[in-house]
Amino acid sequence: MLLLLQRVTRARVEVAGETVGAIGPGLLVLAGIEPGDGDAEIAKMAPRLLAYRVFADEAGRMNRSLADTGGGLLLVSQFTLAADTRSGLRPGFSTAAPPAEAERTFSALVEECRRLHAPGVETGRFGSHMTIDLVNDGPVTFLLRS
């Protein structure tokens, strides 16, 4: 599982011109699901992304997490994160989980994050062509791997 965390002042995802998820200050997380990802990865990664310290404390250091700030979380499935880009000029997608497996795993990740982060979890729409509008704060972006 690959989670690309971006600290944002706001983010929104649209499908066919309709906003399906939006947050104010918080994290936009693009999730790449790999073959075999499941309960073990979710149990590890959901708490980790909520506790990852990317927000400034009073001294300006990145010592506060999403759980500390109560900010929004916008989770968007993005199979291209799991692409094989080691050679050639076109990505390969055999390293990404098949759609049915990826949807089950992504949905379970969303539910676990909702269980752990009461302030709010928004999502895109799995399998849809989405447009994401965001303001990256910093910019601050981290890639977490399971």
Automatic annotation (TrEMBL):
Keywords: Cytoplasm, Hydrolase, RNA-binding, tRNA-binding
Protein's UniProt keywords contain Hydrolase: yes
Keyword Membrane recorded: no
Lineage: superkingdom: Bacteria
Enzyme nomenclature, EC number: 3.1.1.96, 3.1.1.-
Locations listed in the record: Cytoplasm
Motif Gly-cisPro motif, important for rejection of L-amino acids per record, residues: 138-139
GO molecular function terms attached to this record: D-tyrosyl-tRNA(Tyr) deacylase activity; Gly-tRNA(Ala) deacylase activity; Ser(Gly)-tRNA(Ala) hydrolase activity; tRNA binding
Catalytic function, reaction form: a D-aminoacyl-tRNA + H2O = a tRNA + a D-alpha-amino acid + H(+); glycyl-tRNA(Ala) + H2O = tRNA(Ala) + glycine + H(+)
Entry-linked InterPro entries: Daa-tRNA_deacyls_DTD (IPR003732), DTD-like_sf (IPR023509)
GO biological-process terms attached to the record: D-amino acid catabolic process
One GO cellular component term: cytoplasm
Subunit and interaction comment: Homodimer.
UniProt comment concerning the protein's domains: A Gly-cisPro motif from one monomer fits into the active site of the other monomer to allow specific chiral rejection of L-amino acids.
Family (UniProt): Belongs to the DTD family.
Record function comment: An aminoacyl-tRNA editing enzyme that deacylates mischarged D-aminoacyl-tRNAs. Also deacylates mischarged glycyl-tRNA(Ala), protecting cells against glycine mischarging by AlaRS. Acts via tRNA-based rather than protein-based catalysis; rejects L-amino acids rather than detecting D-amino acids in the active site. By recycling D-aminoacyl-tRNA to D-amino acids and free tRNA molecules, this enzyme counteracts the toxicity associated with the formation of D-aminoacyl-tRNA entities in vivo and helps enforce protein L-homochirality.
HAMAP family the UniProt entry points to: Deacylase_Dtd
Protein name: D-aminoacyl-tRNA deacylase
